[in-house]
Design goal:
alpha/beta; Rossmann fold; six-stranded parallel β-sheet; 17 helices; about 40% helix; about 15% strand
Length: about 450
């Protein structure tokens, strides 16, 4: 089979490369000549573990190629995937479909024979119908179906998610289109990966509903963490007790500074707007958005409180900028809220991230960027862990102690044990767990009982 993939961003490049791994002939097309030149020369425009090796493998096998020529990608294709950006609109947070419709109109000009057009981008309910209208208007004689096939890729684990997914969701109106999709996903179909065959509208809602539910789960455990801090509980024990219930599950029950990235913030906002558009308000999701926004602001307040209530003239060492480990994505990352807030309060910030610093330098000003984790700590008044990269999980605590001016650690990801910090004499603050004072005693909380 042959497919074209329009867009070589995160979704398009990962999807196209993984389809090539399935044995499909794939042409990825992008208008950005610089990006195509980079891909042709062996470079990768995004950070995703293992993607560079897989791209190289498929290019050498002759199953994966790159071009700026849309006709080349569409001609003779069994399916053309639209994987362009759908950024939130500034005015209302709803997904901007400009690039989707533009791609559909241009694809229509080059269709030859029966082709399915696949919405791989995250799009609001009803987009598949509108894409069909755009194509039909641009090319009334075209023989095609439009399919919604949402992606469920986690940054940092995208290849595994595509090759070994929990499920594949396909929304279409004809058996002819379903059969093409079955053939494209044949390796997964043979392995009995659950295939949800439904309508385009249901497929579009499934994507948003899935991400909104996970965002709500994160927000819920963060609220419980606040209760644990006030009442003397330990959120990690609570999360374990909850997660052992098969109806709940342990994933996404990790308290922290709030969710970020390219999906959850955008998709929760979009779902709120979709609900309003259809007269079905998504009240719970709306509240999740509000709570998460406030959560990131509160993290700066926590750091300031851990520094005695004032950071004016103090140096803060910051470990982690990306919204999560194993990615260079800083979109909606908590660090982008925390660092400016600390600077506004008078602090200077020294920061390190294994992958995201180049992206961050264009967004964050007056930050001292250093080459490794320990370099951030020299004469710092506090060390703050924002992103749970593996290399931050086993710091040499003796060296940390020697470098810091004040043995003060604020762990926003709970990657260290409270007992370990106590034994090493650190003042230690984390999320939803007992805080340790500099003298090794647990900070006392007022417990309200009615």
């Amino acid at each position: 089979m042959k497919i074209g993939v329009v867009g070589t961003g995160y979704v398009g490049l990962v999807s196209g490369t993984c389809f090539a791994e399935f044995g499909v002939d794939v042409i990825c097309v992008d208008k950005d000549q610089r990006k195509i030149d980079m891909l042709k020369s062996g470079g990768i425009p995004i950070y995703e573990p293992g993607l560079d090796d897989l791209v190289e493998k498929q290019v050498k096998a002759g199953r994966l190629s790159f071009t700026t020529n849309l006709e080349e990608a569409v001609r003779d294709a069994d399916a053309v995937f639209i994987a362009v950006g759908t950024p939130p609109r500034v005015e209302d947070g709803q997904a901007d479909l400009t690039y989707v419709f533009q791609a559909a109109e241009e694809i229509a000009q080059h269709l030859q024979g029966y082709t399915i057009i696949v919405d791989k981008s995250t799009v609001p309910v009803g987009t598949a119908r509108k894409v069909a209208e755009v194509i039909r208007k641009a090319n009334p004689d075209a023989d095609f179906d439009v399919v919604s096939n949402p992606e469920f890729l986690r940054e940092g684990a995208a290849i595994d998610d595509f090759l070994r997914p929990d499920r594949v969701v396909v929304g279409a109106d004809t058996e002819r289109a379903f059969e093409v999709m079955r053939q494209l996903y044949r390796p997964l179909y043979i392995n009995e990966t659950p295939m949800v065959m439904t309508t385009p509208e249901s497929a579009e809602i499934t994507k948003y509903a899935s991400n909104a539910f996970l965002a709500a789960k994160i927000t819920f455990i963060n609220e419980i963490a606040n209760l644990c801090e006030a009442a003397g509980g330990n959120v990690q024990d609570v999360a374990k007790g909850m997660g052992l219930d098969g109806r709940i599950g342990k994933k996404f029950l990790h308290a922290g500074p709030g969710y970020g990235g390219s999906c959850f913030p955008k998709d929760t906002l979009a779902l709120v707007q979709i609900g309003n558009n259809f007269g079905a308000p998504q009240t719970l999701v709306d509240k999740v958005v509000e709570i998460n926004h406030n959560r990131q602001i509160e993290m700066a307040d926590r750091i300031i409180a851990a520094c005695g209530g004032d950071v004016k003239g103090k140096k803060i060492a910051m470990l982690g900028i990306a919204f999560k480990p194993n990615t260079d994505d800083i979109r909606e990352a908590p660090s982008l809220v925390i660092i400016p807030a600390l600077q506004k309060a008078g602090a200077t910030v020294s920061a390190f991230d294994p992958a995201a610093m180049d992206n961050a330098k264009s967004v964050l000003e007056n930050v001292e960027w250093v080459d490794d984790a320990y370099a951030t700590m020299k004469d710092a008044d506090a060390l703050v862990i924002v992103t749970e990269w593996n290399e931050f999980r086993s710091l040499n605590l003796d060296r940390v102690s020697d470098l810091l001016k004040s043995k003060n650690i604020v762990d926003l990801r709970n990657i260290y044990k409270v007992s370990e910090m106590k034994e090493n004499g650190f003042k230690y603050s984390s999320i939803g767990r007992p805080a340790i004072e500099a003298n090794g005693s647990e900070a006392q909380k007022i417990r309200a009982v009615s």
